[in-house]
Write a structure and sequence with these properties.
It comes from Streptomyces viridochromogenes Tue57. It contains six helices and no strands. With about 150 residues, the protein is mainly alpha-helical. α1 packs antiparallel against α2. The longest helix is centred in the middle third of the chain and has 27 residues.
């Protein structure tokens, strides 16, 4: 009963402020103030205020909010641990199984250690010639700038 009276008084005061604002030709602001002022009156008329008042003074309701909070904390902490570990248990098992399969290489891909089996695709002197060309280019640039 007191909450309904307070909400009604707040609505009337807000509508009065909106009227004064509209009188000053600030119609957009007046409409916004009126919208805010009508919210408490609407909450009283729909019964939300009674429900909130009953909930606020009910120990069972507060215990329920506590249980919901504990549930949320458990859920959030398990998700954080799951992200740190790298996924769900099923994903970790699949990754472990894939890692074991990759660790065992087929015999055809194993490198041979025989001395004559390596084939060379480039001559051994090619890198030295490239390095000399690179230095000659650098020397030409330095001479051009007088260094």
């Amino acid at each position: 009963m007191i909450a309904e009276t307070v909400c009604s008084a707040v609505s009337v005061a807000g509508l009065g402020i909106a009227a004064v604002t509209a009188y000053r030709k600030r119609f957009l602001a007046a409409a916004r103030i009126a919208a805010y002022a009508l919210v408490p009156l609407g909450l009283v008329m729909t019964g939300v205020v009674d429900w909130l008042a009953d909930t606020a003074f009910s120990p069972t309701a507060w215990a329920g909010f506590g249980v919901l909070g504990a549930s949320w904390l458990l859920f959030a902490s398990t998700r954080a641990v799951e992200r740190r570990r790298g996924g769900t248990r099923k994903e970790r098992r699949e990754a472990r199984a894939a890692g074991q399969r990759e660790a065992v290489a087929p015999a055809a891909s194993a490198p041979s250690l025989e001395p004559g089996s390596r084939q060379s695709t480039r001559p051994a002197t090619a890198p030295r010639a490239d390095a000399a060309d690179d230095f000659s280019d650098i020397e030409a640039i330095l001479k051009k700038h007088g260094i």
